[in-house]
Every structure is written in structure tokens, then in C-alpha cells.
Amino acid sequence: MNVANTVFLIIAAILVLMMTPGLAFFYGGLVSKKNVVNTMMSVFAITAVAIILFIAFGYEMCFNGDSLGITGHIRHLFLSGVDLNKIILKDQGISSGTYLLFEMMFAIITPALFVGATVGRMRFDFLLVFVILWSVLIYYPLVHMVWGSGGLLASWGILDFAGGTVVHINAGITALVLSIFLGPRFNKKTESYSLPWVLLGTAILWLGWYGFNAGSAFGMNGIAVTAALTTTVSAASAMMTWMLLEKILKSKVSLDGICTGALCGLVGITPGAGYETTLGAFFTGILCTICSYFFVNNIKPVLKFDDPLDAFGCHGVSGIVGSLTVGLFAAKTVNGQIALSGLFYGGGIKLFMVQLAGTLFTIVFTAVVASAITTVLKKFIAMRVSARDEQIGLELSEHGEFADAQVGESSLFSAK
Asked: How much is the pTM?
């Protein structure tokens, strides 16, 4: 065991775990006051579900052996008989236990991302069962196909450093499917509960993203430094791009806008963080934000599906663009382990076409299976809350508690 690399990866895992409560604050700040608790609980409760599933059989499905390039073998329920001290990444000196801990955090944050498309109208029990089925039928197979030994997409040569396909496109497409099945809210005009929470959530997410991207180098090495640098540059160029777009097109710059812009850059650089140059990261942030901005503001209103917090507009669109930019900006001078450089670094168009094929496969696979899960599950569990419950808010109807309960009691006492 390499002690330095092990400590590095454990710290990275903790940073990724922080992203889930950070996302809860980000989403909780954006929703209306009557849905804050439900939104934050929906995000954070996934933590428990995902951890139990992953140690029960998820890790095995992702990384133990190979079946047709789609999934691994389940042979050690709840890790019984697994040697967690076995060194599985020999070059980095990383044990199976450390590797499992790091990958577990990705299994937590990924389903939490699509909660943004369901706020204010999905039943809590439906969400929890959906997350279980989604993890088994979509997430674990995708992890194996991209990162597992013998995985289908890995055999195609797709590059996904930290989760462009596995995490962001996957969660974004799922968000789109769920928003279509749920239908629009009865009242779309709502005020954000707390913009300071949005900024707090963005800051926590950005910090956690260093664990997400740099940690995917699995050691304290030059690739980790590159991933940390490209993550920073892409987020900054993306935030600046959103800021300029709002200033030019709307005359006013919004806090939730620049926070969303920063997240678009973080999402977009994820698949190429350890492969792209700093200049490539700069342009990746710009391209992802331009595409997400115009999708959210111009295309989504025409399509009329209701994704309240733009989970697809941010993670789906920027994830797709970011996956494709790997085929443009990846360079063997940055990471000598890749077989091909991107188009702008002398590698021709081959890598771009591989990225395009892998991206399209992820979109279709996720959309089809997520639609099938939702269709079947709706027959057994009601998916959407009643009109009355939606009107009064899911704080009361689903949980019986309020974000501002103490403030409300204090005000009432003062009035008396």
C-alpha cells in the first residue's frame, strides 16, 4: 500500500461525499419555500440508499469480472470474503478497500443530481424505489462499461476521466425522462428560497469537485495536478461566459446564473480533466456554458418539459458537450496513457468519433432503460403527488416539517 496515495484518495472520497450535502443546499436554495425540506431530504436520503446498495452488490456489478462487457459478477454479497487490503492498482499502491470507498461516493452523488428535475411533484417513496432500480439497471452497468475491466465502451476506446458519461450524461438524461413523465407543475412561477444557499452549495460543490476530478488520478501525481488545474480553469471560464451572456442579453447578471455557469464548467471538464490541456479546459468551459445557456433560455421553453432546476440543461447538455470536447482537446503530451490525441492536437478525427459514439450510446441506453423503469414502477407506486399536496407543498404533505418552523413559531409568539 502506498500511504501517500491512499491518504490522497481517502481525502478525495471525503470531498466527493461533501458534494451531496452541497447539492442539497444548491437545490434547496433554488426551490420555493414550501418544498425546501423535501428537496434537501430527497438529495441527502439517497446517501444511505446508495451506500447500502454499493456494498451489498453494486461494487461487484461494477468491477468484479465481466459479463458481455455490460456488468460484473455478483459473488460476494455485502463484501463477504473480499480482501479489502488487496492491492488492485499496483502502480499507485491502492487497495481494493480504498478504491471501493472512492467509487462509492460517485454512486451517491450521481442519482442525487436528477432530483432537480422532480422537485415539488414527485412522491418521496417513488423516488427511493426508482433510485434502487436505476442504480442496478443503469448506473452499475454504465460504470462497468466505461471503467470496468472488459467494459463495452472501454473496448471502443472512449475516454471518460471522472464521469462525463457515467455521471453527468447519465443523470441529465434521467432527469429529462423523469420531468417528461411527471408533467409540468401547476404553478411554475416560484421564488427561490435562499440565493445565499445557492452560493454556499456551489462553493461546496466546486471544492468537492477537486476530489471528484483530481481524485480520479488515483494518486498524488502529475495527472492529479493537471485535473485540479483544468477543473479550476474550466469553472472560471464557464462562470465568466454565463456572466457575459446575461449582461449582453439581459442587461443584469444574476447570482443563480453565475453559479449555474460555474457548475456547467465543472460538469463539462469532468470527462477530460486528466486528458486536456489548460487551453482546452478554457474553451471547454466556454462551449459548455454557451450550449447550456441557450438550451435553458431558448430551447427548453419551446420543448415545454418542466425541469425546474435545469438538471438536464446543466448536467445533461454540458456533460454531452464536455464528452465531445475530449475528442478535440485531449493530448498525449498531457497524459501519455491515452492512445490518441484529439483533433486539435494532431490526433485526427478518430477520437472525436469514438467520443460521439460513446456519448450517443449513453444517451440512448439511459433514456430507454429509465423510461422502462418509470413505466413499470408507476403501475405499483404513484409517481406524482396530488394536486392538493403540490399546492400546499411537499414539506407538509410528504414530511410534516418546515424549513422555517422555528422562525414561524417565534413570529407567532411575538404576534400574540
From this structure: 0.95
